[in-house]
Amino acid sequence: MKKTILLLSLVCSLAASAAEPGSSKETSNGTCPVTGKPADPAITYAYEGITYSFADEASRQKFTNDRAGSLYQKLGGKAAIDAAVELFYVKVLADKRVNYFFEDINMNKQKRKQKEFLSAALGGPIPYVGKDLRSAHESLGGLNDTHFDAIAEHLQATLTELKVDPQLIGQAMAIVGSTRDAVLNRPAKPAAAATTAVP
Ligand code: HEM
């Protein structure tokens, strides 16, 4: 209970400043995060303590618009995702249905990777460069829908416990749900048929 209160206050105190532009201490490297072209050090935007520089004004604008509209920012940015992943793994490791998968896993690394993955998947500013989900899970023998559902259940419960808006939880869970085939190493489902074919 104490732990939950601590995490909640951590989220509340940090989330307010997490996604705010301004007071930047670090500077990104010289490549534009939008175009991949060399960045102009005069065209910058500060986000979550990092100053990003861009190839041109249009890229800067796209980056700021993407951030403003992102689920990542609506959820509270880096501080909120970090706190959610910490709480999520407390739940996962306490659950006998799935915790044995993590027996030999370095959980500090795992938490860092999950934070990176979820941040990028939810529209955070830093691209995910870890293993793709298919190869990350292919060696986990016997992984099936029941395990996936348990993991998704813990993520949903975590976001609910952190008092995230139910509508945002729904959006986040849809993104996580879209990884099911990759995590379970199944062929991806074909895209839905085009509705324009209906007379
Ligand atoms: C719900 C969707 C899931 C997502 C988004 C997800 C995400 C990830 C990510 C990002 C990694 C790290 C990849 C890397 O090494 O770079 C990872 C590894 C891992 N995941 Fe998942 N995962 C999901 C479901 C599951 C499920 C259902 C289980 C088992 C119950 C599981 C167990 C593991 C384990 C044990 C590893 C470590 C593998 C290793 O280091 O050898 N994951 N996952």
TrEMBL record:
Superkingdom classification of source: Bacteria
Pfam families given in the database record: Bac_globin
Keyword Heme: yes
Cofactor(s), by name: heme
Any one GO biological process: oxygen transport
Residues given in the record as heme binding sites: 137
Keywords per UniProt: Heme, Iron, Metal-binding, Signal, Transport
Molecular function as annotated in GO: heme binding; metal ion binding; oxygen binding
Keyword 4Fe-4S appears in the UniProt entry: no
PROSITE patterns (alphabetical): GLOBIN_FAM_2
Coiled coil: none
Protein name: Truncated hemoglobin YjbI
Signal peptide: 1-18
Organism whose genome encodes this protein: Roseimicrobium gellanilyticum
